[in-house]
Amino acid sequence: MDEKNLYVETWGCQLNYHRSEKITGHLxxxxxxxxxxxxxxxxxxxxxxxxxxxxxxxxxxRIGQIKNKRKDTSILGVGGCMxxxxxxxxxxxxxxxxxxxxTSNLGEIPDLVNRANQEGSVASTPKPSGFExxxxxxxxxxxxxxxxxxxxxxxxxxxxxxxxxxxxRSRPPExxxxxxEQLSENGYREVQLLGQNVNAFGKDIEDGEVDFSWLLExxxxxxxxxxxxxxPHPADLDDETLTVLNDNANIVRHIHLPLQSxxxxxxxxxxxxxxxxxxxxxxxxxxxxxxxxxVTTDIIVGHPGETEEDFRKTLDVINxxxxxxxYVAQFSPRPKTRSxxxxxxxxxxxxxxxxxxxxxxxxxxxxxxxxxxxxxxxxVLVEGEAREDNKMYGKNEFRKTIEFGGNKSxxxxxRKVRLKSENTGRLVTTDDGSVKNDSDHYVKPGV
Length: 447
Ligand code: SF4
Prior knowledge:
CATH architecture of the largest domain: 3-Layer(aba) Sandwich
Helix content: 25-40%
CATH topology of the largest domain: Rossmann fold
Bound molecules: iron/sulfur cluster
Strand order of the largest sheet: 2-1-3-4-5-6
Oligomer: single chain
């Protein structure tokens, strides 16, 4: 089999980046070797996102941009969430696309390449179903994404995900544990459990015993040094999950808990299935597990119907929870969603003003949160070289990025770092990994 070059570009969430690892893993069996330069590629894959109009605009721009960079003989395939809902309309929207595939038929790519070569433009975007077990070619040899469930069975009024990813499909739990054990044996340091709504895992499994807290406990028991997970839904974050987090030091002290709005009126319009009071209670329970737990969130500003008073309630929740970080976005109407058909749209400049207000509030909260760690020692999984010379960076057990003096040989290893200021610190571990005498190491209460 002649070796051919494959170039993959990805937009969107961790699930999509992991899906790209499956695309490269699968195509390797068809003689494709991943390359970093688009000009070298025989096959170009764009794995797209549809969460906001902006993400789709970026893809359209990129398709135009590569026209003169790609080989004349190269084939361009566009897949992922944008392709799933646009299907063959993508051909008329952007020239140069040879085939289109969906979110649950990655396995079909080799056949689509052949058909595109023979027949010209071809699209295949079947209704999302099932769970594709394809070989994975991971980008990292110490950090691994593991998808535990595909799709989402919620119906948030602004969200296109259920349309493009289909209903919740949990993966067989024994397959997940097998994969974690294999990765642990291969020396992986961290696994991140992924799901559109990760803590809905098991809701579609009949036996009723298996749920997210069950899986998290079994994952922790494998002994893998670090476990993280994303993205949980506040309404599904139960006490059992918080107990498992409390009892297992190898689970990160971080929960990403999308709030979206702090107003009950807007939460109802959004169909989020929780109230601001319930959200505050859940965030409070997480802080009982660890007062320093890093709670991060997503917020949408300018959803149809959102008044100034509603928005003030969002700022108030930010003030109360003091998030470690916030991903804030202006409302972007998505095709075929209920919110896209709603009246009472918030003017663009008003959306921008609210976005700016959240970012300013967030800066204060992040700084206040980060200051709590000054003088403490945390454990960093080293990821790479920081911009500053002789500085490395990595995430600590609160999933905050830390910079410190070090060298490349530390990549993929844990190092203890004492924080001199927010997010920068000094190694307290000698090169051979032994820990210097340190009275100030942060020990999680109760473990
Ligand atoms: S839970 Fe998340 S993925 Fe599911 S519909 Fe709501 S916003 Fe979309």
